[in-house]
Design goal:
Helix content: 25-40%
Structural class: alpha+beta
Order of helices and strands: EHEEEEEHHEHEEHEHHHHEEHHH
Number of helices: 12
Bound molecules: iron/sulfur cluster
Strand content: 15-25%
Number of strands: 12
Largest sheet: 8 strands, mixed
Radius of gyration: 22 Å
Strand order of the largest sheet: 3-2-6-7-8-9-1-10
Oligomer: single chain
């Protein structure tokens, strides 16, 4: 790990430097929301953003991507998808860095998902630490995801109006910092500014329900027959928004498109789907093994807190708060976990 300083005034030049090698994808405002999209003008960069609606992990798994093209009635004629320009993902919150690391565990484990791996392995990632919680529903202080040592090449700490103290975690991150000519090594004064930033963060980030990950997992595991699932899912409209906005939800379906292209090839495409949709657990015979909204809500939370722990030894929820923030029925994880921990957390 090396630590550097980047003056805020040098940010546009750094973006220009990155864009020579990568397609820079960064948070920008669009009407009332923020989103990660290709940054064409550094002036559009918005680093002081509340959470984006779609998480940056989706950049590596775009909805509707062509997995391969094929000659109908001719098995074995599949062609690999075309190569794309590698991505520099810029300004990723620490909870979303954790989200990408969960996706890596899923998609880069055998059997490796080649489309994900191709995008992910070429990517350069610049994270940013938040000065305080970005939306009221987030759980990052409880989940410990307001800090991370995972995934990023460079991590920005916005210590004041003039500069970022930047950690270089990977050789590539440090090489880029050096080659750009825009970074200088951090000094004693910069470290002191970082200490002040840390102290301010500690005042801002307060755990909401205060359970260790294993304790929360045990409470969720014991709640299978709890009526809270019925009560909490009462207003759910099964829209699946909570799945789509989640940085660690990873289910997909595929569809083949056979209105043939000019070159005579069909396409197999991948689309996002999610366990809160009514049809998700419906099987060919017509049976739906999670027919009730309460079963689907319970499954989503068990998938994060119980099955994630069993399979990976870590929670599948990184505490970003999106599922509650963007739920049209105001179903919030923080209230569910609050009830399970005996510390009720409610919002107006
Ligand atoms: S976003 Fe809310 S209403 Fe929509 S499926 Fe999820 S919990 Fe239900
Ligand atoms: S379950 Fe909700 S709070 Fe947890 S990572 Fe997914 S969207 Fe974020």
């Amino acid at each position: 790990m090396r630590d550097w300083v980047l003056e805020r005034a040098s940010l546009p030049s750094f973006i220009d430097f990155l864009s020579k090698r990568w397609k820079v994808v960064a948070p920008q405002r669009r009407n009332e929301i923020h989103e990660f999209r290709e940054l064409e003008d550094p002036a559009d960069l918005c680093l002081d953003y509340p959470t984006t609606m779609l998480p940056p992990s989706r950049v590596f798994l775009p909805d509707g991507e062509v997995l391969y093209r094929f000659q109908p009635n001719s098995p074995g004629s599949a062609a690999a998808a075309a190569e794309e320009r590698p991505i520099a993902l810029f300004g990723v919150h620490t909870c979303d860095l954790e989200g990408i690391s969960v996706m890596d565990e899923i998609y880069l484990a055998a059997p490796i998902d080649r489309a994900y791996a191709r995008r992910r392995e070429g990517a350069f990632i610049v994270g940013i630490e938040c000065a305080g919680p970005c939306v009221e529903e987030n759980l990052c202080a409880d989940k410990g995801t307001n800090h991370t040592e995972r995934v990023y090449d460079l991590l920005l700490h916005p210590v004041d109006e003039k500069r970022f103290v930047v950690w270089g975690r990977t050789n590539r991150g440090n090489d880029v910092a050096e080659e750009s000519g825009l970074f200088r090594p951090a000094t004693h004064q910069d470290h002191a500014a970082l200490d002040d930033f840390r102290a301010a963060q500690a005042r801002m980030f307060r755990p909401k329900f205060g359970l260790r990950p294993d304790e929360l997992s045990a409470r969720v595991r014991a709640s299978w027959d709890d009526l809270l699932w019925v009560a909490q899912s009462r207003l759910c409209i099964s829209c699946g928004a909570c799945n789509v906005v989640c940085p660690t939800c990873h289910c997909f379906t595929t569809r083949d498109h056979l209105p043939i292209r000019e070159d005579g090839l069909g396409e197999r495409c991948r689309y996002w789907t999610g366990c809160q949709l009514e049809s998700f657990a419906k099987v060919a015979s017509g049976e739906n093994f999670r027919e009730k909204k309460s079963q689907r809500l319970r499954h989503r939370i068990f998938k994060k807190e119980v099955y994630g722990m069993d399979r990976f030894g870590r929670s599948g929820c990184v505490g970003c708060g999106r599922c509650g923030h963007f739920c049209p029925a105001d179903i919030r994880l923080v209230e569910i976990f609050g009830q399970l921990s005996g510390k009720e957390v409610t919002y107006a």
